[in-house]
Amino acid sequence: MQRMQRYRPSTATIAVVSLAAVVFAASVAVPALGGPKALSEANPVKIAKRLTVKRVNKTARRALRIAKRADRRSRRVSAKKGPQGPPGIQSTSTVDGPTVSTCASGGPATCTVVSSKAECPPGSTPTGGGFDAGIRVFVAHARVSGNGYFAIFVEANEFFGSEVSAQAVCASGPGISAARASRSGAKRWERRKLAEVRAQER
């Protein structure tokens, strides 16, 4: 024989049944005490609505109290001033490098592969850069070098040359220290990189 399992109602089911019992008891008892007016007010739907509204209002008041406490705390925290931070960037500017002309592709590598460098003024440091070149010019290399922005250009137009130039974005201010890279070291690196690209074009 199979043993029958005993049914155990869940907590949610018990709560729903209890609420229904309270509503039904109120709908029966109130009319007996208050007459026709009490009968209309003891409608189970109205009682359930009043209980629901009461619970919602209680939850809303509690949420409002929590929000007010959080707002007071945030005001106290924002009112406190922290220590003075380090000085930052005061201004930025752009500097254009020299404009260099290329010759048509197929010519000597010394004129089909050229470079331009935009130097930031003293007291500022490069934060990036860009370049200006023709539509048939390839940029073989472009990066910050020393205290400026260095770019290498390769002409691909077989009929005409182009004019190219580099541009540096420079930042200055009390919190900016000028680039400390060795100027002679940056120049050596630029010459070596330009020679490498020209060797690939021969």
Q: What tags apply to this protein structure?
A:
four-stranded antiparallel sheet; 2 domains; 202 residues; alpha+beta; three-stranded antiparallel sheet
Characterization of this structure:
The protein has 202 residues and is of the alpha+beta class. It folds into 2 domains: 11-79, no CATH class; 91-201, no CATH class. The chain has helices at 11-41, 44-79, 109-112, 183-201; strands at residues 91-96, 100-101, 113-119, 125-132, 137-145, 148-155, 163-172. The strands form 2 sheets. Strands 1, 2, 4 and 7 form a 4-stranded antiparallel beta sheet that branches. A hairpin with a 2-residue loop joins strand 5 (137-145) and strand 6 (148-155). The longest helix has 36 residues, at 44-79. The radius of gyration is 40 Å and the shape is elongated. The mean pLDDT is 78.
Overall pLDDT: 78
Helix content: 40-55%
Structural class: alpha+beta
Question: Span between N and C termini?
Answer: 97 Å
How many domains comprise the coordinates? 2
How many DSSP H or I helices? 4
Brief description of this entry?
By secondary structure, this protein is an alpha+beta fold. It has 2 domains: 11-79, no CATH class; 91-201, no CATH class. 45% of the residues lie in helices and 25% in strands.
